């Protein structure tokens, strides 16, 4: 793993990648024209953060026409363009912010229109699938720097975004080994400008880590809400009435966008199934301890959970 905390670079103008890069002061924009494709929670939060921190001279928003009307009303982009091929014209950076299942189709639409030296990056929650789906479609004159901000909420759409979403959160970058350093640096500078910390990671490692810290918890939340909903009518009403305990926290996670999570599960299948198998074994061990009254085992597991929570609070990630 490499740390992405280097000095920021600007990524401006036409020409070769080296000509297009220059060292900037911290306050200078990182990009001249930045195109965001998908203006939901993450894309609209980026638009707000980029604008607030002056990280690009111009922000182009690309999404469906009805979403763009809402983006225009919110005033968070300089231009709105529904046609992806038009939206990426002359951009020195493009960020894909649609669900990961739409990446291949989107990359096919924009690839022939990306300017020489343009950086293509993304915020997708799975990284091996993005490299598989997008990488082969890109012309050699485009820099590809896949990324993933570890920040979010259960809400969707352009109204749900906010400029501080990425502050004090991690963004993981998973660039292919031959990626130009200055392109990695420019994307890192953008995220640092949004208040995030940046780390470089292998894509396979990213997908395994995210399977356990994010994808499996969502799978469990969706499942437990389904199990509660399957109960007879009378019990279901009781579940909702007295949801104040742990169940309520699961319902918050389970309120997340169905398309996004379908795509994440299907695009991180192997790692998710591996973590689910491990979890199932551990859950069965806990069930056995409960059945046989193994107090030490039960207390040990609960204490471990408490320690993990304390650690999260200590490192400001709770
Ligand atoms: P979102 O709020 O649902 O926004 C997605 C946007 O993309 C919507 O405007 C949506 O329009 C548009 N879109 C969907 N399918 C499209 C398609 N095929 N072509 C063009 N536009 C399309 O989702 P989000 O939470 O911002 O997530 C966006 C990306 O960020 C995903 O790849 C996700 O994995 C990643 N991510 C999410 C989180 C999180 O916590 N939410 C955290 C980190 C990374 P419609 O509403 O009309 O479909």
TrEMBL record:
Major enzyme class: oxidoreductase
GO molecular function: NAD+ binding; prephenate dehydrogenase (NAD+) activity; prephenate dehydrogenase (NADP+) activity
Listed transmembrane segments: none
Gene3D superfamilies: 6-phosphogluconate dehydrogenase C-terminal like domain, NAD(P)-binding Rossmann-like Domain
Keyword field contains Protein biosynthesis: no
Name of the protein this chain belongs to: prephenate dehydrogenase
Record's catalysed reaction(s): prephenate + NAD(+) = 3-(4-hydroxyphenyl)pyruvate + CO2 + NADH
Enzyme Commission code(s) on record: 1.3.1.12
Keyword NAD set for record: yes
């Amino acid at each position: 793993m490499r740390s992405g905390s280097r000095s920021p670079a600007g990524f401006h103008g036409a020409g070769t990648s080296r000509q297009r890069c220059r060292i900037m002061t911290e306050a200078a924009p990182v990009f001249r024209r930045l195109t965001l494709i998908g203006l939901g929670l993450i894309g609209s939060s980026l638009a707000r953060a980029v604008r607030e921190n002056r990280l690009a001279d111009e922000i182009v928003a690309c999404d469906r026409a009805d979403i763009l009307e809402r983006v225009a009303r919110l005033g968070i982009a300089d231009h709105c363009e529904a046609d992806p091929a038009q939206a990426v014209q002359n951009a020195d950076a493009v960020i894909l912010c649609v669900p990961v299942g739409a990446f291949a189709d989107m990359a096919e639409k924009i690839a022939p229109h990306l300017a020489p030296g343009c950086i293509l990056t993304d915020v997708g929650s799975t990284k091996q699938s993005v490299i598989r789906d997008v990488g082969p479609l890109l012309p050699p004159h485009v820099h590809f720097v896949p990324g993933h901000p570890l920040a979010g909420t259960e809400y969707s759409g352009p109204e749900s975004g906010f400029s501080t979403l990425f502050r004090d959160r991690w963004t993981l970058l998973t660039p292919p080994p031959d990626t130009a350093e200055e392109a990695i640096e420019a994307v890192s500078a953008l995220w640092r400008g949004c208040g995030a910390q940046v780390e470089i990671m292998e894509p396979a490692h990213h997908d395994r880590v995210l399977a356990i810290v994010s994808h499996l918890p969502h799978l469990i939340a969706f499942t437990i809400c389904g199990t509660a909903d399957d109960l007879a009518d009378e019990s279901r009403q009781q579940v909702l009435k007295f949801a104040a305990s742990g169940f309520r926290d699961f319902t918050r996670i389970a309120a997340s966008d169905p398309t996004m999570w379908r795509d994440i599960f299907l695009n991180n299948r192997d790692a998710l199934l591996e973590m689910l198998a491990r979890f199932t074994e551990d859950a069965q061990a806990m069930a056995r301890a409960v059945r046989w009254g193994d107090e030490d085992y039960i207390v040990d597991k609960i204490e471990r959970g408490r320690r993990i929570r304390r650690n999260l609070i200590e490192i400001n990630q709770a």
